Structures are given as structure tokens and as C-alpha cells.
Amino acid sequence: MVKLFREKLAQRGARGIIGLGRVFSVMDDNKSGSLDIQEFWKGLSDFRLPISPDECRQLFTIFDSDDCGEVIYNEFLRAVAGEMSPIRREFCMKAFQKCDKDNSGELELSDIKGLYNAKMHPDVQSGKKTEDEVLLEFLDTFEVHHALKNPEDRDGKVTQKEFLEYYNNISASIDDDNYFELMITNAWNLNDNNYSKGWGNAI
């Protein structure tokens, strides 16, 4: 059903981020920034997608990744865009492997400490947080994407699956492969450049 929806959008010329944004805006009748099941069904009908009401509910559940009963734009974008390309995945894997120094398959606080200097983070500078607290929050940004439906998985460690899921979501909002490559390379210093900036300015 998702594949069929993608094909219908492509036939309408809705390719890329701008095109999908327009589709979402058209479906969002009340301009709330999210789609409820009625707006979603109307949108599918407008695109002449041949599915039943039950199939519509199933598709809505797929799009509604956090089970809140509404589909927000980022969820819509990710569902339609699908998985990132093998080239993008390869760059993400290079970043993960660079962090995972002990080859445990998980990133922990000690792994991130080796890449980022939290001393320059504004909250550390002001004394609001310790360096470890800032780094743990950084790790949590990766876990939160995977844990929307699996909250018990939030354990302070980032698995390869969680890492890739995070970048799958980011990838959906970036059309250009070269820009995505540059973003990953700079964020994780895959070129091993000697940066003098602290963690707060590194990303």
C-alpha cells in the first residue's frame, strides 16, 4: 500500500521535499500541521488510491509512527521517502564504526567522549550541566527515534539500528546526496580534520 501511494504521488509529479510538502498541505484541510484519519482518507481518495477503509486505517497506522492518532509532516515524509539509499547508509555506517571503537555494536558515553568535547557547550560553560549530562542527552537524540514505539529500549546506549533509524529520518528531508554526504562527513569528522572548536560548535 505504501509503494502504491508513492507511485501515485510520483505520477502527480510530487517528487522531492517541496513536492511532498505541497501534498501534505493539500491533505491538511484544517491547516493544523497534522493529518487525522478523516483528512488522511480524503487525501487518499483524492489521489484515487484503490484501498478499502480498513486498508486506509492500516496505512494510517504505518504513517503514525508515534501512535498519537495523527500523522505529522516528518512522519509523512519518512513513510513516503522510505529507506535511505545504499550510498547514504554506507556513510552512516562509516560514522558508526568510527565511534564504536571496541566493536561492541553499541555506542556509549565513552565512545562519544572520544569524538566530541562538551566543555564548550553553553550549558556546561554556565554550570547548568556537566559534560557527561550533555553527552548523554546527545546519545538520547538517537534513541528517541527508535524508542517511539519501544520506550523500554532507552538504555543510554545507541545500537547500530537506532543510529541508522535516526539518520533515516534525517535523510528523508534531504534531497541531495552530496549534501547528505557532506553533513555526515563534517558531523562525525570522517576526514579526520583537526577541529579546534568544542562540541557545542562541532555539529
Verbal overview:
- The two termini are 37 Å apart.
- Helix content is 58%, strand content 4%.
- It contains 12 helices and 4 strands.
- It has a two-stranded antiparallel ribbon. Strands 3-4 form a two-stranded antiparallel sheet.
- With 203 residues, it is mainly α.
- Mean pLDDT is 79; it is low at 195-203.
Question: Features of this protein?
Answer:
203 residues; mainly alpha; Recoverin, domain 1; two-stranded antiparallel ribbon; 58% helix; elongated
Work out the strand percent. Answer: under 5%
Helical residues, percent: 55-70%
Structural class of the helices, strands and pairings?
Answer: mainly alpha
CATH topology of the largest domain: Recoverin, domain 1
- Shape designation: elongated
Question: What order do the helices and strands come in, and which of them pair?
Answer:
Layout: H1 2-11, H2 16-27, E1 34-35, H3 37-46, H4 53-63, E2 71-72, H5 73-81, H6 86-99, E3 106-107, H7 109-113, H8 122-125, H9 131-146, E4 158-159, H10 160-171, H11 177-187, H12 199-202
Antiparallel strand pairs: 1-2, 3-4
